[in-house]
Each structure stands twice: as structure tokens, then as C-alpha cells.
Amino acid sequence: MSIPDSVYPGERLSQLDADRLILHIASGDMSSLESLYNAMYREIYGYLYSMLGGDRQSAEDIAQDTFIRVYKYAPKFAAEGHGRSWVYRIAGRLAFTHLAKNSVPAAELDEHLSDGTDVESSALDSQAVGEAMASLSPEERQVVSLHAVSGLTLREISEVLGQPLGTVKWRHAEAVRKLRAMLDDSSH
User: Fold this and answer.
1) Which of 21, 69, 133, 141 has the fewest CB atoms within 10 Å of its CB?
2) Which domains are seen in the chain, by residue range?
């Protein structure tokens, strides 16, 4: 089992390469932790930023805590080709714990969220997207964030959340339907 030769910041790491890195981390290899961090930090941060409604400081703190927990719990990790999903699960649980402790209303959570598809989109568009995202349940927002922000497939999201693929597909479809309806209403 070798460490991936070319893990660069922001490069998408495969599930198996993540497994390998986590197993090396479990044996105390700090360079593997650095490689995992470099490969996954941006996408974990983006996921958390979206989940926390644009709260940069909390997203940074929780992203850091995610990798601290990866280091702490790596010895308990069972390598089965789900390394990336395992890291996302840790981040998601930390985000939900943060949200539960802070009881922030959903409207505030998504106040600054933008879909990021059009750099020149107006402030009104950003507000409409934020309001539309706020209409989603936390579970729907999580699926949309993992798919749109982190670029995970619905199958990968199913693994990350430990939920049946059908449930994830349904949540995603419902969220997209709600978002379209809200955004269509706000454009009229």
C-alpha cells in the first residue's frame, strides 16, 4: 500500500487513495495527514461553508477540526474504499453539531450563499438563491451542498451520509424542485 505519488492541493483524491492515506495516518505518518489535508481541505471547506450559510470562520474552524478528528480516529478506520466519504461524514457531523448548538435560523444560515455559477450575478440573485436555500430542510441543503459545492455524485453522497441511494436521489430531486420553484417565483 503506497501513498499516492501526486497529491496536489485541490486535486480530487480517489476513495482508495484516501483509504491508503488514512491507514498511513493511523500509523502516525504526518506527511500522509498533510497530503490528505492538501487534497481535501478546499472541498471540505466549501461543503462546510455552504452548510453553515457562508460563516467563513466556523467553516474554517470545523474544517480544521475535521482533520484533527481524522488524525485522532484514523486507527479506528476500516479501509473499505470509502476514505473520502469517511472524512465528509466527520465534517458533516461536526457541522450539524455546530448548527444544533448555535440554533441559527435557516434564513440566517443561507443569507450569503450563492450558487457560484455566474460571477457577475447581482446581489438580488444571491439573495434569491440564499432565500431558496433557506427553504430547504438541513438534510436537503446538505445533499445540494455536497453535490453542487463539493462535486460529489449522488452515489458518493449516499456513501458519505450512510443513506440509501434512493433516499439521496429523492432528497436531491425535492431540493431541486423547491429551488426551481422559489427561484422562478423570485424572478417574476
Assistant:
1) 69
2) 1-103 (1.10.1740.10), 105-188 (1.10.10.10)
